[in-house]
Hints:
Layout: E1 6-7, H1 22-30, E2 39-42, E3 47-49, E4 63-66, H2 69-74, E5 78-79, H3 92-102, H4 110-117, H5 121-132, H6 136-153, H7 158-164, H8 170-176, H9 183-187, E6 194-202, E7 205-211, E8 216-222, H10 225-235, E9 240-243, H11 248-259, H12 277-287, E10 295-296, H13 297-303, H14 310-318, E11 331-332, H15 345-358
Parallel strand pairs: 1-4, 3-5, 6-9, 10-11
Antiparallel strand pairs: 2-3, 2-4, 6-7, 7-8
Helix pairs in contact: 3-4, 3-6, 4-5, 6-7, 12-14, 13-14
Amino acid sequence: MSGKPQIAGASGGCSISPAIDPETAWRQVLARDTKAAFLYAVTTTGVFCRPSCTSRRPLRANVLFFRSADEARAAGFRPCKRCKPTTVCGSPLEKIRAHIEANLDRPVPLAELGRLAGLSPFTVQRLFKQRLGASPLQYQRALRAGNLRNALKQGGSVTNAIYEAGFGSSSRAYEGAALGMTPLRFAQGGRGEQIGYTTARSPFGWLVVGSTARGLCWLALAATSAEAEASLRQEFPLAALRRDPSLAGLVDAAVATVAQGNPDSGHELALDLRGTAFQLRVWQALRSIPRGETRSYSQLARDLGNPKATRAVARACALNRVSVLVPCHRVVGVSGSLTGYRWGIERKRQLLELERNET
């Protein structure tokens, strides 16, 4: 191979001029140009990326340029997991999302996203929240947190995991990782984390609520108080659990949400939800389903702009740790059947009937 980066042949996707200059393209890669309309691949790693990718710059001699993801795949390269170069590059929303994903290591102002998409900062914020259920900042934090969780689960240095996840410093990770606990404690399965909890009767069985300093992290249904408490201990086996009767108000708020449509307990219902960026989007979408109504898994996937993600939506519902307040009971099969429910089909039926009767 020559010492200059090569350019591959043409096909569909995000097209560029056939006369692209490899020297110009290389400068765009070095500059992480977000407007560059091509992809580059690295022969030593077998991965192809967007020019704006935040990964370490490769040696110039190991670079190939492609006009589309299809070309890069046909040449035997696989897409980068960091910059996700296979996403559609035409719509403003995808440009915004791709830019955020490629710049997890720094703040990305709304004005910058607006210039990229040709929209006002206000429109960027509104469009992003409408489609993804989170602001650009919340989305970036969720991605960083997901990267950090994955890195911590692989073992190794916590410090390395923090920086590889896109946090500029360890303090940033501890403030904004959305783990509900420090990165080290998350890596140790919650060891040393303080979680207050209480159990109480409700119209649909015993409830147990667990809360960290960030907010409610567990709300489960069970047949008995002992079974409810056991579910919390099973979910957080290494955390320090302490009974806290003052949290009974959270139980009242949960019941009020089903019976009345809005919590009337006077408690701030901050939620400590832990999941991937996609799971957080699903859980946000669940909270937007009106009381007394249901959605199918496929409907929810379409609402999220990803109609092929029905199974992923179902899995996110199954992993929901905060029942009732994140109302996964409002999701049913395409035929209207109740399908599965983490806390039992009969409880799902009771919750839906109560909501419909009180609507």
